[in-house]
């Protein structure tokens, strides 16, 4: 309530905009009071300001009164006074407010109808709070397109150029050269901004077909850059070297910029990897190797989930690697992988684990990635190789420049042999480089941290490129970097959530067969989703935890199951018998009816017994036969029969007693049915009453 | 001693809830309802559920009277009732009831009167069961609140 008032206080024309999306004003329309109430509370929980009405006409009136009082309308599709689609149309026409449709029915035709009538969204009942948390986007989107339309006409180019520039500064602050280049280019040519890769600034009018950076294309690109030398690589020259049709200089330029950013990230990551190795002070080559590979594996996260083809992972054989890991290495590995898991990408876990295996040469060419992202994963270990070979330790800035050309050159090579070789030399470098590395430790993470920040900030504008994932991946590394500083050993790992630990443990102990991506993903996701399953199973388990009452509970469960089965089988039976006895529909359903009500009554009774609430009145009303209350069900069937018997009595007492129906001793369903058939056809309404009488009964008995 | 009762009642309630979830009678939506209950709306769940009972019985009566009618032909009207029943049932997390509604709707779309009748019976059956269980749940909850509340004065 307090929140609501506060939101109300900030209401008005620009009400709540400062805290947007908090305080967004929603009008909810639904004739179903339950849905309306639940929706209202859900929206309040999202901290929106909610007004509700159960009539479409009222809603229209309120909207017409003051359109500015609301930001968004949510409306049910099926309403008695007005069709939801009609309301949608009217609101769209008159008030131009975003409208979200709501329905229990997910029929494609209806959804289509909603869209054609202009709905922003179509939600299905039951509405979940997660969905409602996002609905504010429709308001923003509408506002944005409105404002865009306004500025569209006068200064299109200017806006685009401005966008392009702005995009530049935000991303390129760490890369002055690139920045300058872009500026030069923009000054050189008029058109810019389309394919800068800043998709969120995309002007809606002109849309060039997006260039897909395939593996082949990227390879050419990298080859061209290598040939020129990274420092000297100019888009024009690269374009010429690549000699690809249909590729524009702008495409190359933007790709080059991304590539440069990527390399920067690589170098920072590599240093982080080295840091971790140094921090652990481990001279174990296998560990280093693992870490380097792990870096590689983590770089797979940079490539983004879902972009790795199955072929790329199929030839990994991590088993060999695992065998060689000593315990500390294994632990740290686990730490890394669980850290990766922590980020919430099942694929990243997959990737990092796979990255631990030997990398087959065949893998990379088979890679069908767009953007040639897989290539980007390679240089890590190579860079570490470079590190060791150069025997330079504290040259991170230098590292970038010196190694970059090599990196590019190597990027096209595959390094099955390199990896072990690299590892052995890595150990050497560790020995020599340790002190220096250690010294540079904090400095490292600093720069990398700052760089990471910059890149993530800048790249935020690159929406749909793989580098997005890369940035997030690099943020993974930031975590790792921090972790590495604190690492003393396995102890730190206790801070990781146990679920992720167990998952990675599972990975460690198990020999990962050369699966394809699909399998891994599914397995991973099944593991990652372990917790919810565990929860439910533990819940179920707790249901079965027993004391004496638990027994009763189980019994009830059993009884209920019995009833369920009985209900269904009985239906079938009666479906058949219907033909046998008489084709009278009413008769059959009356049997069903009574039996179902009977079983319902029985369940109620068993519940009563279960909870040891000897509500005798309850039972006696049902059975008219008190002794049954105390009777403990000896065997299910007999209890069931006994109770059923008593229920039958009750029901038939309530209904018009037909043709002297006597209390038979039913021993089976057949008998019950046959007796019921004798009832004749006048039972319908009577039974109905009886049934509803039964229904009404619990109302009285409970609360 | 009363405190012990409150704990035991809570255990009962949890067990009953677990059972209901396990049997598929309730689903996560019910949990969401529980989460919506807080200081500002302390009886939210029971309020919503009571409205649900009220509305559902109305709907069930309507459905039955429609189907019992000898000259029944208005499947569309039945569909409307059914739609509302389905919406409200799913909104409180009554999974089994909702599933029966789906089957019911399928039968009604095929103008299959017999199927509709069968579905209606099943629906009534499921609804009854749900109602009993929820009543039980609320009872335990009430008792638990009482038991927990009485404890404190005794400590003084």
Automatic annotation (TrEMBL), chain A:
Q: Which PROSITE patterns match?
A: HTH_MYB (PS51294), RESPONSE_REGULATORY (PS50110)
The biased composition feature labelled Polar residues covers 166-176, 513-525
Please give the residue positions where the record annotates the modification 4-aspartylphosphate. Answer: 76
Q: Where is this region: Disordered?
A: 143-207, 502-525
UniProt keywords, alphabetically = Activator, Cytokinin signaling pathway, DNA-binding, Nucleus, Phosphoprotein, Transcription, Transcription regulation, Two-component regulatory system
Q: Name the Gene Ontology molecular function terms of this record.
A: DNA binding; DNA-binding transcription factor activity
Report the GO terms under cellular component: nucleus
- Is Phosphoprotein given among the entry's keywords? yes
InterPro entries membership: ARR-like, CheY-like_superfamily, Homeodomain-like_sf, Myb_dom, Myb_dom_plants, Response_reg_B-typ_pln, SANT/Myb, Sig_transdc_resp-reg_receiver
Q: Name one Pfam family in it.
A: Response_reg
The record's note on quaternary structure and interaction partners says: Binds the target DNA as a monomer.
Q: What is this protein called?
A: Two-component response regulator ARR18
What species does this protein belong to?
A: Theobroma cacao (Cacao)
Gene that produces this protein: LOC18587881
UniProtKB/TrEMBL annotation, chain B:
Cellular component terms (Gene Ontology): cytoplasm; cytosol; nucleus
Q: Which GO terms describe its biological process?
A: cytokinin-activated signaling pathway; phosphorelay signal transduction system
Q: What's one Pfam family the UniProt record gives for this protein?
A: Hpt
What Gene Ontology terms describe what this protein does at the molecular function level? histidine phosphotransfer kinase activity; protein histidine kinase binding
- What are the record keywords, sorted? Acetylation, Cytokinin signaling pathway, Cytoplasm, Nucleus, Two-component regulatory system
Cited SUPFAM superfamilies:
Histidine-containing phosphotransfer domain, HPT domain
Concerning InterPro entries, the annotation shows:
AHP1-5/YPD1, HPT_dom_sf, Sig_transdc_His_kin_Hpt_dom
Q: Where is the HPt domain?
A: 41-137
According to its UniProt record, where is this protein mainly located?
A: cytoplasm
Annotated localization: Cytoplasm, Cytosol; Nucleus
Q: What PANTHER family does its record include?
A: PHOSPHORELAY INTERMEDIATE PROTEIN YPD1 (PTHR28242), PSEUDO HISTIDINE-CONTAINING PHOSPHOTRANSFER PROTEIN 6 (PTHR28242:SF46)
What does it do? Functions as a two-component phosphorelay mediators between cytokinin sensor histidine kinases and response regulators (B-type ARRs). Plays an important role in propagating cytokinin signal transduction.
The written remark on domains in the entry is: Histidine-containing phosphotransfer domain (HPt) contains an active histidine that mediates the phosphotransfer.
Q: What is this protein called?
A: Histidine-containing phosphotransfer protein
Q: Which organism is it from?
A: Theobroma cacao
């Amino acid at each position: 309530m307090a929140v609501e008032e506060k939101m109300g206080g900030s209401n008005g024309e620009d009400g709540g905009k400062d805290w947007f999306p908090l305080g967004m004003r929603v009008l909810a329309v639904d004739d179903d009071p339950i849905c309306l109430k639940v929706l209202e509370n859900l929206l309040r929980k999202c901290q929106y300001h909610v007004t509700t009405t159960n009539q479409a006409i009222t809603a229209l009136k309120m909207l017409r009164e003051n359109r500015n009082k609301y930001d968004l309308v949510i409306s049910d599709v099926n309403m008695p006074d007005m069709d939801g689609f009609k309301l949608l149309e009217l609101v769209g026409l008159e008030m131009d407010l975003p409208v979200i449709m709501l329905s229990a029915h997910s029929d494609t035709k209806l959804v289509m109808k909603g869209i054609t009538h202009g709905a922003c969204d179509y939600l299905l009942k039951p509405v979940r709070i997660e969905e409602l948390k996002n609905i504010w986007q429709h308001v923003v989107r509408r506002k944005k397109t409105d404002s865009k339309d306004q500025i569209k006409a006068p200064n299109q180019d200017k806006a685009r150029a401005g966008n392009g520039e702005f995009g530049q500064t935000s991303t390129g602050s760490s890369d002055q050269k690139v920045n300058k280049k872009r500026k030069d280019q923009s000054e050189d040519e008029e058109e810019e901004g389309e394919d800068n890769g800043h998709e969120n600034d995309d002007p809606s009018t002109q849309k060039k077909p997006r260039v897909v950076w395939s593996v082949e294309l990227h390879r050419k690109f990298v080859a061209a850059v290598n040939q020129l030398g990274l420092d000297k690589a100019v888009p024009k020259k690269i374009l010429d070297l690549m000699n690809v049709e249909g590729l524009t200089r702008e495409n190359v330029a933007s790709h080059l910029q991304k590539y440069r950013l990527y390399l920067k990230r690589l170098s920072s990551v590599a240093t982080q990897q080295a840091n971790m190795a140094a921090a652990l002070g481990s001279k174990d080559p296998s560990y280093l190797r693992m870490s380097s590979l792990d870096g590689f594996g983590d770089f797979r996260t940079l490539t983004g989930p879902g972009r790795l083809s199955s072929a790329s992972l199929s030839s990994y054989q991590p088993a060999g690697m695992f065998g060689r890991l000593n315990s500390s290495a294994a632990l740290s590995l686990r730490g890394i992988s669980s850290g990766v898991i922590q980020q919430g990408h099942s694929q990243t876990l997959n990737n990092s684990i796979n990255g631990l295996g030997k990398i087959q040469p065949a893998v990379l060419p088979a890679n069908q990635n767009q953007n040639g992202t897989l290539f980007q994963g390679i240089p890590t270990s190579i860079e570490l190789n470079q590190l060791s070979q150069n025997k330079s330790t504290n040259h991170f800035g230098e590292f970038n420049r010196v190694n970059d050309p090599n990196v590019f050159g190597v990027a096209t090579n595959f390094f099955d042999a390199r990896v072990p070789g690299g590892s052995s030399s890595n150990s050497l470098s560790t020995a020599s480089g340790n002190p220096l590395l250690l010294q540079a430790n904090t400095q490292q993470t600093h720069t990398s941290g700052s760089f990471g920040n910059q890149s993530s900030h800048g790249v935020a504008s690159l929406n749909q490129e793989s580098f997005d994932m890369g940035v997030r991946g690099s943020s993974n590394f930031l975590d790792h970097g921090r972790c590495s500083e604190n690492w003393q050993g396995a102890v730190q790992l206790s801070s990781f959530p146990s679920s992720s630990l167990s998952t990675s443990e599972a990975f460690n102990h198990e020999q990962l067969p050369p699966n394809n991506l699909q399998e891994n993903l599914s397995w991973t996701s099944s593991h990652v989703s372990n917790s919810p399953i565990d929860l439910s199973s533990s819940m179920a388990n707790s249901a079965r935890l027993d004391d004496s009452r638990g027994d009763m509970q189980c019994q009830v469960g059993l009884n209920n199951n019995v009833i369920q089965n009985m209900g269904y089988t009985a239906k079938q039976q009666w479906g058949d018998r219907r033909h046998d006895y008489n084709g009278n529909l009413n008769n059959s359903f009356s049997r069903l009816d009574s039996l179902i009500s009977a079983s319902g009554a029985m369940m109620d009774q068993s519940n009563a017994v279960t909870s040891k609430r000897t509500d005798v009145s309850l039972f006696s009303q049902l059975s008219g036969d008190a002794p049954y209350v105390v009777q403990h069900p000896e065997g299910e069937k007999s209890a069931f029969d006994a109770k059923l018997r008593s229920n039958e009595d009750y029901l038939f007492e309530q209904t018009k007693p037909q043709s002297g129906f006597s209390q038979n001793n039913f021993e089976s369903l057949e008998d019950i049915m046959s007796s019921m058939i004798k009832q004749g056809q006048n039972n319908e309404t009577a039974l109905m009453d009886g049934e509803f009488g039964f229904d009404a009964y619990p109302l009285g008995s409970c609360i | 001693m009363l405190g012990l009762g409150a704990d035991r009642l809570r255990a009962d309630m949890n067990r009953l809830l677990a059972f209901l979830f396990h049997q598929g009678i309730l689903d996560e939506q019910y949990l969401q309802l529980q989460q919506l209950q807080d200081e500002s709306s302390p009886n939210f769940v029971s309020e919503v559920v009571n409205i649900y009972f009220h509305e559902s019985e109305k709907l069930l009566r309507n459905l039955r009277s429609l189907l019992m009618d000898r000259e029944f032909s208005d499947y569309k009207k039945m569909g409307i009732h059914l739609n509302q029943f389905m919406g409200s049932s799913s909104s409180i997390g009554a999974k089994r009831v909702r599933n029966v509604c789906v089957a019911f709707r399928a039968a009604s779309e095929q103008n299959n009167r017999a199927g509709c009748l069968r579905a209606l019976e099943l629906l009534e059956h499921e609804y009854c069961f749900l109602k009993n269980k929820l009543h039980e749940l609320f009872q335990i909850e009430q008792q638990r609140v009482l038991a927990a509340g009485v404890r404190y004065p005794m400590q003084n």
